[in-house]
Structures are given as structure tokens and as C-alpha cells.
Amino acid sequence: MRNVELKARDPDPARTLERSLALGAEDRGELVQRDTYFARSRGRLKLREQEPGGAELIAYVRPDGEAARVSAYERAPVGDAAALRRALDAALGTTVVVAKRRRLLLWDGVRIHLDEVEELGSFVELEAVAPEDSDLGAERAKVERLRAELAIEDAALVAVGYSDLLLDPDEALLRAADAAMRNAYVPYSGFKVGAALRAPSGVIYTGANVENAAYPQSQCAEASALGALVAAGETAFVEAAVVAERIDLCPPCGGCRQRLSELGGLETRVHLGRPGGPRRTVTLGELLPLSFGSKDLA
Ligand code: THU
């Protein structure tokens, strides 16, 4: 079997649902799915346990890429999911589990998935299943038409699977920054920022911006995260992420570049972006060339 499919972050699932229904999509209701991915397989191998619906083992190959992609797959129904999960885990090892709620809609042979993925957030997926003899032209055209109708922007496209997003350590740092950002205290600017720092121990420390009625007393997210790291007894970080709610890439302010440079190295990577979204990775050295530091005091 083959699919043409597209995945994107969905900032407004209620609007996507409304637009899909307005196009005449048929609402097939909500599914709870738990996918267990196994290691050492050619391509990908996952056991899908679904409520309602039962379980199946799915093997598939799909190139990564942002636009509509073709996926080739095999599905095998499973009777005793728990036993198979244990057997495959023992033989191959489990890499990651993806748990989600999926609202399924059908539009002209295209499956529309409104997914709420644990730890990752809201996504929309479009999947056109291709008949065996199809050259995939019609399926691509349908996915593109639906994409336009649902106003899925380029910046929202996601090039990889949910399992990749969960496994990628850079994504984990962006997710931590994103979670902190949601708690930002920003009654004056309304501009939420979150930062996450990975210490050499592997522990991730986070911070959000904290504003003040006496405006200059406000504190940036990076400063908050550095404070959390130091309060926990650490004195360095090896990687950082900064996430803002209102812009795709939030460049750290000049002052924070100086603050970060105190406890990070010239080569320390800083990820700017959003979980699952486009990302720009720069080093502290690139952010703050010719910086003043402890070396100059010595
Ligand atoms: N802000 C940060 O938290 N980090 C930065 O690097 C850029 C700016 C905050 C400060 C203020 O609360 C809001 O964003 C608007 O400037």
C-alpha cells in the first residue's frame, strides 16, 4: 500500500475542524492510539494499539521531507497486542512510544487527522491512500487542494514523524523551553519567551521571562533559566534553546547573549524555533563575536 501524506503543526485545531466540516468532510470521531516503535528493523516497525479498533503491526518506509511524501507500508492485524509487544521488545528493543488522541475525518478519499500528541501538542495530517496502479498524481493534487483549503502554512510543515520528534534531543530542549514559555509572566508586553539549558549532567533547566510594573526590573527567559541552573548547583551548560510564542525564531537579546556566554562556550549550540517547527541553530560564538569575558579580566 502507498500513501501521499503531509504533516503540520496546528496552531488552531478547532478552526481546522470547522474548515474540514465546511468542505463536507465526514467526521469519523475520536480514536485513542498508542504506537510502540521497535529498534533494529529495516524502515520502521510499530505496533499500533487503538481504541476503538484493536491492534495491528505496521511496517513502513517513508523518506523525510516537508512537502507531501509517499509512504509504502504493510499492515498485519494482531490478536494479542500485549504479548506481541513484549515479544518484539525482548527481540528487538523498544525505541519510543507515541500516545495520541486522533479525530479522524474523511474528505474525498483523503484522511484528515487532527492529532493531540502527548508531549508534542497539536498537529494536522493529510493522508491520501493510493490505489495500486496510481501514478500518485491525483493523490498529490487532492492533498495540495486540501492543504490550501485548510490554510496550512509552509512554516508549520513538519518533515519527520512523531517518533523522531520525541527521540531528537534538540527537540526535547525546545519542548522544555516551550513548556516554560507557557508560564511566562508578561502582563506588559504580552510577549512570552521560554529558555532551556542542558547542563553537562544532562539535566535540563528552564526559565520564562518575568516582567515588572517598573519595566527595567523585568527579567528575560534566558536569565531565569541561568538562575535555575546555578541554584541547582551547576555552573555550565552545553546546549540551549529559546522559544517565543509570537515569532517563529526569537533571537536572544544582546544582554542575554552576554549572560549566556558566561556559562556556555563559543561552540555551544543555541536552538531558536519551536517544537516540531522550523529551527535555526547557532553557536554562542556566532551570537556574540568578539565578546568580553573572564579572559579579559585575567
Ligand atoms: N525577552 C526575553 O525573555 N528574552 C530575549 O532574549 C528577548 C526578549 C523578553 C523580555 C520581555 O519580557 C519581552 O521578551 C519583550 O521584550
Can you tell me about this structure?
By secondary structure, the protein is α+β, with helices and mostly antiparallel strands. It folds into two domains: 2-166, Hypothetical Protein Pfu-838710-001; 169-297, Cytidine Deaminase, domain 2 (3-Layer(aba) Sandwich). Helices cover 28% and strands 36% of the residues. The protein is built from nine helices and 13 strands. The chain has helices at 13-22, 81-92, 137-149, 162-167, 169-181, 221-231, 254-263, 284-287, 294-297, and strands at residues 2-9, 26-38, 44-51, 54-61, 69-78, 94-107, 110-117, 121-130, 193-198, 204-208, 239-244, 269-273, 279-283. Strands 1-5-4-3-2-6-7-8 form an eight-stranded antiparallel barrel. A five-stranded mixed β-sheet has the order 10-9-11-12-13. The model has no long low-confidence stretch (mean pLDDT 93). The structure holds tetrahydrodeoxyuridine. The site of tetrahydrodeoxyuridine (THU) has 13 residues, from helix 6.
Write the layout of secondary structure elements.
Layout: E1 2-9, H1 13-22, E2 26-38, E3 44-51, E4 54-61, E5 69-78, H2 81-92, E6 94-107, E7 110-117, E8 121-130, H3 137-149, H4 162-167, H5 169-181, E9 193-198, E10 204-208, H6 221-231, E11 239-244, H7 254-263, E12 269-273, E13 279-283, H8 284-287, H9 294-297
Parallel strand pairs: 11-12
Antiparallel strand pairs: 1-5, 1-8, 2-3, 2-6, 3-4, 4-5, 6-7, 7-8, 9-10, 9-11, 12-13
Mean pLDDT over all positions = 93
Q: What is the terminal separation in angstroms? A: 66 Å
Helical content band: 25-40%
Structural class: alpha+beta
> What is the CATH architecture assignment of the largest domain?
Beta Barrel
Care to count the β-strands? Answer: 13
Q: What is the tally of helical segments?
A: 9
Ligands bound to this protein structure: tetrahydrodeoxyuridine
Output the CATH topology of the largest domain: Hypothetical Protein Pfu-838710-001
Please state how the strands of the largest beta sheet are arranged side by side. Answer: 1-5-4-3-2-6-7-8
Low-confidence stretches: none
CATH homologous superfamily grouping of the largest domain? Hypothetical Protein Pfu-838710-001
Q: What's the CATH class label of the largest domain? A: Mainly Beta
